[in-house]
Amino acid sequence: MIHNRRFHRTAFVLAGAYNLAWGAWTALDPQWFFEFAGMAPLNHPSIYACVGMVVGLYGFVYLEIARAPERAFVLGAVGLAGKVLGPIGMAQQILLGGWPWKSALLCVTNDLIWWIPFALYLRDAWPAFKREVQDGPRRASVGDSVQREG
Asked: Helices 113-135 and 73-95, interaxial angle, to 10°?
């Protein structure tokens, strides 16, 4: 059992639902963000629709973390890494003048609001992950399952 399990499960259910919704919306209407930010429409919207699909798939990853938070440290670390790297790329685009400041709202809702809950999860899940790495995978013993014949 990890510390603050209920909080972590709730946070990752919300993150999963958000990513699934955002991903579906973006896959179905890949121009929405560019219209919102006042940017020129994409020449190849299918590329951004693919981004929506990938973001949506992360939703399933977050729902898996919510389902079994004791065993999902690596998935949470990958999720937080994506939520840190995304804003770095966005900041570069904005600072170099490629995207308007209004586009930064995307990083607030997709990434920044999740930094604290994801980081807290990693802090609380670390002891279980460390134990698993040190002890190796749990081996099934004879008493763990009974097989019936015929």
From this structure: 140
User: Which among 132, 113, 7 has a CA at the least distance from the CA of 65?
Assistant: 7
| pLDDT digits 0-9 by tens, 8-52 | 999 999 999 999 999 999 999 999 999 999 999 999 999 999 999
Burial of 76 (0-12, 13-18, 19+ CB in 10 A): buried
For 46-88, write each residue's pLDDT tens digit. Answer: 999 999 999 999 999 999 999 999 999 999 999 999 999 999 9
Q: State how far the Cα of 22 lies from the Cα of 55, in Å rounded to an integer.
A: 7
Q: Residue 23 and residue 94: Cα distance in Å, rounded?
A: 22
Is the CA virtual torsion 131, 134, 136, 141 positive or negative?
Answer: negative
- Angle between helix axes 5-28 and 113-135 (nearest 10 degrees) is 120
